[in-house]
Design brief:
Strand content: under 5%
Transmembrane segments: 21-45, 51-75, 157-176, 182-201, 208-230
Pfam families: VIT1
Structural class: mainly alpha
Order of helices and strands: HHHHHHHHH
Number of helices: 9
Radius of gyration: 25 Å
Largest sheet: none
GO molecular function, one term: manganese ion transmembrane transporter activity
Number of strands: 0
Distance between the termini: 77 Å
Main location: membrane
InterPro entries: Ccc1_fam
Oligomer: single chain
Number of domains: 2
């Protein structure tokens, strides 16, 4: 019997928690860099006070990282609870209307391209086990995979840590350099960080590395321009 060899370059052969948290990691890192940089540029240009900029940066990172982590936890938990209710309702329908559920599944298979006779045979076998029928209906009708739900707590940790790491990057120059120079270096290293983040995502995709990095840089970096313009406007008023 032929066996499929495990390949380290195939991400679906890996049971990696990092892969399951890629959304939170990218979102948290990107938002940490962009939100912090945009705010710091605006504050630095508006106040020209290095202590104020650093303090504001630390407060932003502390508050936003916790907020993003909690938000990630609650949103994932809410999704799981909604899916749990859908599965419960589907289970009730299977118990009360088994024949109707079988016909529904047969129709789904036929729409997927299975011959009618084969679809009916498959469903008759599946329907002998209510749990198996529930799993199949969950996947085919509800688009839920019951045994492969991500942990809300783990996703929140990914989000929290990623935001902190991303947020620290734009604040570093303000700890080491005069404020006028720090503004420029903060923008440069943050833009570089965004570009690298885009490149890192290609480890889990098949996209061209430079295009992914450039896309991340251009889309996320636009927030810096907004922060710069707001800072200029504020300084002009003051």
């Amino acid at each position: 019997m032929q066996e499929i060899p495990k390949r380290s370059d195939f991400i679906h052969h890996q049971n990696s928690r990092l892969v399951s948290g890629i959304r939170e990691i990218v979102f948290g890192s990107q938002d940490g860099m962009v939100s912090t940089l945009g705010a710091l540029v605006g504050i630095a240009i508006g106040t020209h006070n290095q202590f104020t900029v650093v303090l504001a940066g630390l407060v932003i990172i502390a508050v936003e990282s916790i907020s993003m982590g909690v938000g990630s936890y609650l949103s994932h938990k809410s999704v799981r609870e909604v899916e749990k209710r859908k599965l419960y309702e589907e289970q009730i329908e299977i118990e009360k209307y088994p024949e109707a559920e079988k016909l529904e599944l047969i129709d789904i298979y036929i729409k997927d391209g299975w011959p009618g006779k084969v679809a009916r045979q498959i469903v008759e076998i599946i329907a002998k086990d209510d749990n198996l029928l529930l799993k199949e209906m969950a996947y085919r009708e509800l688009r839920i995979i019951p045994d492969h739900q991500s942990s809300p707590f783990r996703q929140s940790i990914f989000m929290f840590v990623s935001y902190v790491v991303g947020g620290v990057i734009p604040i570093l120059p303000y700890l080491l350099l005069p404020i006028t120079v720090a503004i420029i270096y903060s923008i440069i290293i943050t833009f570089f960080g965004l570009f690298i983040l885009g490149i890192v995502t290609t480890k889990f995709t098949k996209r061209i590395w430079w295009w992914s990095g450039l896309e991340m840089l251009l889309l996320a970096g636009s927030a810096t321009v907004v922060g710069y313009l707001i800072g200029k406007f504020a300084s002009a008023i003051v």
